[in-house]
Amino acid sequence: MPHQEPLPFWLVNVPRDQWPAECPDFLTECNEKDRRIIGTPDADYALLTWDEVKELVRIDRVDKFHRVPSELRRYRQFTHYLVKEYGSIMRFMLDERLKWKNMEPAGRPFEHDSDIKILYNDWPYGLDPNIVHLVIWTKFELDDDPETGLSTPESRQEIEEYVQRIFGAKAKEFVWFKNWKSLKSVHAVEHFHVMLYKPDADFMREITGGDVPMTSKFATL
Questions:
Q1: Does the N terminus or the C terminus of the chain have fewer Cβ atoms within 10 A?
Q2: Which residues pair with 192 in a beta bridge?
Q3: Whether pLDDT at 183 is above 60
Q4: 199: number of Cβ within 10 Å
Q5: Nearest-CA neighbor of 124 among 220, 53, 18?
Q6: What is each CA distance from 100 to 43, 153, 220, in whole angstroms?
Q7: If phi over 0 gives left and psi between -120 and 50 gives alpha, with beta otherwise, what is residue 149?
């Protein structure tokens, strides 16, 4: 049998009749990690189970959370579009998703609901479909250790108390984590993540204000 060369990463998971003649602009500057993920067939990608999610959070290996290859490709396309249309991802987040006119907090961390917004993760990781991924955006800073880039003990305690207060009575299983500074895709707006296993749909609509993630709205351009 003739030897077949592997497909370029930018053609993987793309129907043959939609193959571009060359690498799209939104993929030309991908780092090696993203090239490797995007170049993996979706069929070879294993979704994380709830037990695996809990363990990664427990050992603080949140760098192991990855998007499904075709979703990462769409995410790269979307963020490329945002930079062209809005000038930056942060501008889009503030104007369209958070709808915050200013970033001045009304008080101390977690003191005022107006300083917090709970939304779906627009481009969630490759997870068991029973897992819901939320992002909690805040106008106030949550301190990190300048040497490690990880949350300070005081900051972790503040987040833990908030998460327990908001989700503890309504959700049976959930975890939270805050990305390392090096992993954040939106640096200018403070945020952390909450993942819930089989949460009540009505509670999700209530807590997010009926939010719909961008992955459900964005048509591939």
A1: N
A2: 136
A3: no
A4: 21
A5: 53
A6: 40, 29, 27
A7: left
